[in-house]
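Bug #77: duplicate submission created two jobs. Keeping one. Sequence:
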Amino acid sequence: MRVEIGGYLEGVTVILFIAASLDGYIAGPDDDLSWLFTDADYGFSSFYKGVDTLVMGRGTYEVVQSFGEWPYPGKRTIVVSRSEGLKIETPATELFCGDLPELIAKLTEEECHKVWLVGGGELVRSFLEQGLLDEITVSMHPILLGKGVPLFPGGFRRTLLLLKDTKSFEGGLVQLNYHVMPDDEEF
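Kept job's structure:
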């Protein structure tokens, strides 16, 4: 979360960069990801290069671990969990069991600038509810899954978004980039 200090914005920018089906699912039943486009980069490499730290929930961590080789080499990863019993087995990965504002304060103190909120849905909801999410980039895949893991589980406060950019790709994927509006900002 960025704050104005002496006329300049300082602090951590938290970005949700995620893929979703057109009907709003980030995974199909049983965490199925076989529907995701893998034919192009879709801006991921450039985004990833600029990220200091990844933050993900316990469930997402466990799903990513099931992929085999750790897909985030060389990047600090923080796994947020309610339980301290989670066994961390990947490089540059740490467990965090505190409050999210405490995590953002810690990252700001450490001069972290850009955080990728990898998921999952419950953690995204918590970031939204606490006003800690700055940007959302959703790569909408032209597929309807019908059921699965929702992009935004209900239960968070109404949040206004300002469209910053859109990109469309040949295969039908559309990428939407939004700025999350703080409560005190208007369009």
